[in-house]
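2024-03-11 09:14:02 INFO queue: dequeued item PNPLA domain-containing protein, len=281
2024-03-11 09:14:02 INFO validating residues
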Amino acid sequence: MARKEVAVVLGGGGVTGIAWESGIIASLKAMGIYLWQADMILGTSAGSFVGAALASGYDMQRYYDHQRVVNTDEKTGVASKEIILSWRDAFIEGGTDAEAIERAMGNISKTRQPQITLAERKAVAESRLETLDFPDHYGAVSVDRDTGQTHVLTKDSGVSLVEATCASGAVPGVWPSISFNGIDWIDGGMVSSANPMLAKDYRKVLVIAPLPKGYGQMPSTQEEVAELSKTSRTFLFVPDDHTKAVVGKGIYDADRAPASGQAGWDQALTVKNDVLDFWNA
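2024-03-11 09:14:37 INFO prediction written
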């Protein structure tokens, strides 16, 4: 069987991550790099919304333009100090076992009251989506909160695009989990924010990761992509210093989205020649 060719991997990072990713993608489009042409587009959490638009063939310049205006339908989430400490405890409890960490995260989602209802969360998800049709070459990454296993939800999973993106972005203690197919689902990016190794079967992989830091004993996105680079040609975008300054600690703050999108556009320009060489190779 011939090896699969090109994958695009989009990581989690809140509403500012959505904007930053869209800025990079629109900037790449202006260079003549059309990421929607990839054979597979994988999105985790925030990246699941961007990925859905990208895979649908939606005009990503227009999508980026949307990010330059504050979305008044967006519900601002806040990860309280208590919730952050509970996440820390999950990493301590799980150690080097990713699925054990995810099960601990699942327990948080069972015991901590989410900040909005599932109905409200679905409304937010729908407001972020440019289509409700599930694209063929798209997958949303989510986790079974009871087993800790990571899954890629595709068109063949028998769920709606709204459900898949809600599952991918169900941050424990912030947003509600969602149930379908007999499983309770939580955010796919709590242990690996971008899950680049899910694209290990592809010859060439472009990764955009708003939150690349590794936590506990888990590898960073840079370390994961270094491992992936042993078998695939890779290109990785992580926030530069300007983006970090723009976003700060407010990844769920919709007011920071416009500047985050511009930061993504500008950052892509700084590596124009390198990314063109990668994409055209």
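2024-03-11 09:14:37 INFO annotate: The longest strand covers residues 4-10.
2024-03-11 09:14:38 INFO item closed
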